[in-house]
UniProtKB/TrEMBL annotation:
GO biological process, one term: secondary metabolic process
InterPro entries on file: Kinase-like_dom_sf, NH2Glyco/OHUrea_AB-resist_kin
Organism taxonomic ancestry: Bacteria, Pseudomonadati, Pseudomonadota, Alphaproteobacteria, Hyphomicrobiales
Protein name as it appears in the record: 3'-kinase
Transmembrane segment boundaries: none
GO MF entries: phosphotransferase activity, alcohol group as acceptor
Length: 264
């Protein structure tokens, strides 16, 4: 006996909770045509993780993904409640699972350099007058990072506190984008999150503590982590400006991320 209940719908997908025999739950995600390429790539990456640091994919068929149901809250909740160090330690544990060496990486992952093209192509005049030097510095750091080769591995590409959910197996990532590039980039998005947590993300002491924990636990270069964090904050701002959204959150963090990078 199988029963399915709709739980979420976005322009990109619809998610159902599937109940089997009245006790086992699973998630059924149906990807909409508009998002087929990116979401399909992310779903193949999720399958490749084999449940290590991420939700398990049981089966995939075309635009339908059958996967583990995670009923816990997002990691953003304890962080917004003041437990930022614990949150960062949890992120490091998740990333260590995602970045484990595995054979046969999925095809079609977006190259990290291509992902940053929006930043390099941006018209600086779309940025507030007082923030244009921030854009210039962050772009320069991004170019420097690309000029200094690093390992190239499959990356989640959108890892932040509210894309990590609690489960009886611990904290697990969902919704990867599927990117290929520098491992240190995968923690960049952490530094401008969680949502509704700008006060935490823009606090220089929190930035330093996050960089310390992630660098120590993952073995990634601390300056490189902060460089990607600043570059990604500027890239995120460019995406939002393209969509006509305000960039208050990014601008609250970016000066402090640039300072932390300079000091690293």
């Amino acid at each position: 006996m199988t029963k399915s209940t709709p739980v979420a719908e976005t322009p990109r997908s619809a998610i159902f909770r599937v109940e089997q025999n009245g006790r086992n739950f699973a998630a059924l995600k149906i990807i909409k045509p508009i998002a087929a390429k990116e979401e399909g790539c992310g779903a193949r990456l999720l399958q490749w993780y084999e449940g290590n640091g991420a939700a398990t994919v049981f089966d995939m068929h075309g635009d339908t993904v059958f996967m583990e149901w995670l009923d816990g809250g997002p990691l953003g909740d304890p962080v917004r409640a003041g437990k930022d160090d614990e949150g960062t330690i949890a992120i490091a544990t998740v990333v260590a699972g995602l970045h484990r060496s595995r054979p046969d990486a999925p095809e079609g992952l977006e190259d990290l350099r291509d992902r940053f093209q929006t930043l390099f192509d941006a018209d600086v005049r779309t940025w507030p007058h007082t923030a244009r030097d921030l854009y210039a510095r962050a772009s320069g750091i991004a170019l420097k990072l690309f000029d200094r080769p690093s390992a190239r591995i499959p990356l989640h590409g959108d890892l932040h506190h509210d894309n990590i959910l609690s489960s009886d197996r611990g904290w697990l990532a969902i919704d990867p984008k599927g990117v290929l590039g520098d491992p240190a980039y995968d923690v960049a998005n952490v530094f401008i999150n969680p949502e509704r947590g700008e006060k935490i993300a823009s606090d220089p002491r929190r930035i330093a503590a996050r960089a310390d924990i992630l660098s120590q636990r993952l073995g990634y270069n601390r300056k490189r982590i902060l460089g990607w964090a600043a570059a990604h904050a500027a890239l995120s701002a460019c995406w939002d400006l393209e969509d006509g959204k305000a960039i208050i959150g990014q601008l609250a963090c970016l000066p402090h991320l640039l300072s932390a990078y300079d000091l690293a």
